Amino acid sequence: MAELAVDKHVKYILAVEKNKDSFESVVMDHLRMNGAYWGLTALDLLGKLDSVNVDEVISWILKCQHESGGFSGNIGHDPHILYTLSAVQVLALFNKLDVLDIDKVATYITGLQNEDGSFSGDMWGEVDTRFSYIAICCLSILCCLGKINVEKAVSYILSCKNLDGGFGCTPGGESHAGQIFCCVGALALTGSLHYVDKDLLGWWLCERQVKSGGLNGRPEKLPDVCYSWWVLSSLIMIDRVHWIDKEKLVKFILDCQDVENGGISDRPDDAVDVYHTYFGVAGLSLLNYPGLKAIDPAYALPVDVVNRIFFSG
Ligand code: GRG
Ligand code: ZN
């Protein structure tokens, strides 16, 4: 079986980060904050975070912060909770949370909670369980969970639970592995996993593994490397990861590498991108692939980073 082409992937990620005129960078312009999180977390898991210029990244992040306390995807764009979590996660990676006015960020997020406990993504009001996870993860990293109504947040997430054991984006929404990660992650971070039917959800999740070893996001869909994260992290959080064939999944992810130019794609022989490179590496980390740092399935950050946040006083 092919091995993980660590050096090639490091080179690929650093090149995407540097070459701001590349096709991928232009397409991703408005999502650069998410891209920074994907690329830098992957580099950290690969043990190469020290090859980036920390001051440059931090000063760019701070230029993306708005008066409201929220962060945008790039300089001059509108703030959104999606980019706010990525900004906080990147600062955590570099052990630089102290550059933040924590109350200000927490106030932005707290202000997005609705009466029913749900969260909007920004001032325009779209509601989605993705934003519940993001709010809870971000506040938890900032040690400010107490600033929202956690009980209502949990009860909204539970109202999005379906009869198949999965979760959707709003009440009645179809179960999807991405939303399941968000809901299970939010429940894990609030100590509420006892509300999940682990056997029922575990079955739904392990049925996502297809013949090639890859995982899909819903029944009848094609496998995709990013679900190695969404599905696997959920299975780990509910303690059912032994229900899939780990070796076949490792092989599927490794088959999606561009072994010449670096990077990982969604499926074998497709074009690579930073998003799938990150989720491929993160998936392999969850599978204990040798040489990679361990990643926390709920915080989506390296375990040593999470430990530093909570245990270094
Ligand atoms: C910190 C890891 C992390 C996440 C932050 C943004 C977010 C919280 C979570 C997103 C969860 C989500 C909904 C992921 C799914 C993304 C995806 C591949 C969507 C495509 O779905 P479909 O159904 O495509 O259109 P396929 O063909 O795969 O079914
Ligand atoms: Zn994908």
Automatic annotation (TrEMBL):
Domain Prenyltransferase alpha-alpha toroid: 4-300
Molecular function as annotated in GO: metal ion binding; Rab geranylgeranyltransferase activity
GO terms, biological process: endoplasmic reticulum to Golgi vesicle-mediated transport; gametophyte development; root development
GO cellular component: Rab-protein geranylgeranyltransferase complex
InterPro entries noted in UniProt: PGGT1B-like, Prenyltrans, Ptb1, Terpenoid_cyclase/PrenylTrfase
Domain of life: Eukaryota
Reaction(s) catalysed by this chain's protein: geranylgeranyl diphosphate + L-cysteinyl-[protein] = S-geranylgeranyl-L-cysteinyl-[protein] + diphosphate
Cofactor dependency: Zn(2+)
Keywords assigned by UniProt, alphabetized: Metal-binding, Prenyltransferase, Repeat, Transferase, Zinc
Cofactor note: Binds 1 zinc ion per subunit.
EC code(s) of this entry: 2.5.1.60
Family classification: Belongs to the protein prenyltransferase subunit beta family.
Known role: Catalyzes the transfer of a geranylgeranyl moiety from geranylgeranyl diphosphate to both cysteines of proteins with the C-terminal sequence -XXCC, -XCXC and -CCXX. Required for male fertility and root tip growth.
Quaternary assembly: Heterotrimer composed of the alpha subunit RGTA, the beta subunit RGTB and REP; within this trimer, RGTA and RGTB form the catalytic component, while REP mediates peptide substrate binding.
UniProt protein name: Geranylgeranyl transferase type-2 subunit beta
Organism classification: Eukaryota, Viridiplantae, Streptophyta, Embryophyta, Tracheophyta
Gene name in the database record: LOC107886914
